[in-house]
Amino acid sequence: MSVRLPGASKPATAMAALSLPPLPLRAPPAAAPAISPPHSASTSLKRLCKEGDLRQALHQLTARAPPPREHYGWVLDLIAARKAAAEGRQVHAHALATGCLDEEDDGFLATKLVFMYGRCGRVDDARRLFDGMPARTVFSWNALVGSYLSSGSAGKAVRVYRAMRASAAPGSAPDGCTLASVLKACGVEGDGRCGHEVHGLAVKSGLDKNTLVANALIGMYAKCGMLDSALRVFEWLQEGRDVASWNSVITGCVQNGRTLEALELFRGMQSSGFGMNSYTAVGVLQVCAELALLNLGRELHAALLKCSSEFNIQFNALLVMYARCGRVDSALRVFRQIDEKDYISWNSMLSCYIQNGLYAEAIEFFGEMLQHGCQPDHACVVSLSSALGHLGWLNNGREVHAYAIKQRLHTDLQVGNTLMDMYIKCDSIECSAKVFQSMSIRDHISWTTILASFVQSSRHFEALEMFREVQKLGIKVDSMMIGSILETCNGLKSLSLLKQVHSYAIRNGVLDLILKNRLIDMYGDCRKVHHSLSIFQTVEKKDIVTWTSMINCCANNGLLNEAVSLFAEMQKANIEPDSVALVSILVAIAGLSSLTKGKQVHGFIIRRNFPMEGPVVSSLVDMYSGCGSMNYATRVFSGAKCKDVVLWTTMINATGMHGHGKQAIDLFERMIQTGLTPDHVCFLALLHACSHSRLVDEGKHYLDVMMSKYGLKPWQEHYACGVDILGRSGQTEEAYRFIESMPMEPKSVVWCALLGACRVHKNHDLAVVAANKLLELEPDNPGNYILVSNVFAEMGKWNSVKEIRIRMAERGLRKDPACSWIEIGNNVHTFTARDHSHRDSEAIHLKLAEITGKLSKEGYTEDTRFVLHDVSEEEKIDMLHKHSERLAITFGLISTRPGTPLRIAKNLRVCGDCHEFTKLVSKMFEREIVVRDANRFHHFSGGSCSCGDFC
Question: How much is the pTM?
Answer without folding.
Answer: 0.67
